[in-house]
Amino acid sequence: MVSASAGSGKTTVLVERVIEKILHHQSIENLLIITFTKAAASEMKLRIKNAIKNKIKEQPDNLFLKQQLAKVDIANISTIDSFCLEVIRKFYYVINLDPNFSIMTDDTQLSLLKEKALLNTEKYFFENKDQEFIDFYNNFAGDREVEAARSMLLELYYVTLAQPNYEAFLKRLDFFYQIDINKNDIISSNLWQEKIKPLLLTNLQNIINKISQYIAEAEHNFNDLNKLIEQLNLFMKSLNYLLAGIEQNLNYDEIRSRFSNCKFVGRLRRSSNWDESSTNLYQEISEFKAKCQDQLKKLFASFFITDEKEQLELLAKAQKLVKTISKVELTFINEFGKLKRKNNIIDFNDMEQFAYKILTSNSNNSDLARSYYQNKFSEILVDEYQDVNELQEQIIQVIKEKGKNNLFMVGDVKQSIYGFRQAQPHLFLQKYHQFSNEVQSERIILSDNFRSSKNVTQIVNNIFDALLTENFGGINYQKERSPTIWCYILS
């Protein structure tokens, strides 16, 4: 894995790796190079061609290099969608797909087909007088705005189709709303333990860390700031008391009580005897206090607005609603799929889903397809790896073949921009941390920017030093951008 900041030459590194493979007599036909846009794929081909031409100038009699230059245009250098389409065209029979299918690229026609699928789905549930479905529509749409329910189903459609096993994904949707019937409390729920608790701990710890920093600054100040330090210590004490309750899994109402009592006691008062540095520190702490109080109010409003009894009732209703949504969503996906099959068309979401099914189905033909690509590609190179989604990651892993170290990834978690396509930067971060400790895997960090001026990089570094930490962003920006140490031997 290469974690490369903007302007550090990550694409150049990827191109150089391809050239090194070619120089060691690996054909470019046996490399799978994945980019995230067609423009990036075209640029990659051009840069590889130019690099090969430069090598030919150095080795004019090298026939293999000339052959590789001729093969660049037909090599597997493409977007993941284009590669998936190739898999489908070659192994369509694995999933019983008509080989004469066409790709639906007209957004208007596709929207009309989705609308028809939605109407058919609604008709099915209304005709069957499904009360859970009626409750769902009343909850989201009411008598006035049916589009609210439809929009939610369409948004969930894109999230669902980016999962390797979307049926299992939909069945798991209510996981966070499940309550242990033996305990029947909020604190033991999946929602609290896996989502709310970590969020609260992170937010509170960040506030405590900042207060500790201000106390240290105040203690080293030459002016008498004892009153200010005392107020900060009292506030930090109440925060630590709340934090301990959450960490110890005390009952919900006790934590709620501690949260409501967690306040900054007293008013900050400025002394006329303070110098400029003390006055500036006072002003900074005053602004921080206001932000803290606002943040704590929002957290309380989000998670502690009612007592445990009412929260449990809301959680039970939410679980029932989510299960209904999952059922309706699956019906819509199947109905939409039927309409597309009837018209012998596929869309971009189908490409990745169909390719994954072809490569992972439990059949001899699927084994054949999987073996074909595992044997064909000696290495898989992925550009902009921070933008892969769960389904794309699984497709890459299936082609890679378990046990082989033939995956080369280049990316930068700070440049993840495909959230609207369900990109999952945490996949990059998992490997980023994992590869720092593994013997068989290697992590390379490129932190020097060769594109921007020094003034630009300094401003950006100052901003991200404060923003990107292990807790926020999953990466220590300051540590990653540590300056390169150069060694010069002087004669």
TrEMBL record:
UniProt-recorded Gene Ontology molecular function terms: 3'-5' DNA helicase activity; ATP binding; DNA binding; hydrolase activity
A Pfam family reported for this protein in Swiss-Prot or TrEMBL: UvrD-helicase
The keyword Nucleotide-binding is annotated on this UniProt entry: yes
Superkingdom assignment: Bacteria
Membrane-spanning intervals of the chain: none
Binding site for ATP: A4, S5, A6, G7, S8, G9, K10, T11
Keyword ATP-binding in record: yes
Gene Ontology cellular component annotations, sorted alphabetically: cytosol; DNA helicase complex
Catalytic EC class: hydrolase
The protein's name in its UniProt record: UvrD/REP helicase
Biological process terms in GO annotation: recombinational repair
InterPro entries: DNA_helicase_UvrD/REP, P-loop_NTPase, UvrD-like_ATP-bd
Residue ranges of domain UvrD-like helicase ATP-binding in the record: 1-453
E.C. designation(s): 3.6.1.-
Keywords recorded for this protein, A-Z: ATP-binding, Helicase, Hydrolase, Nucleotide-binding
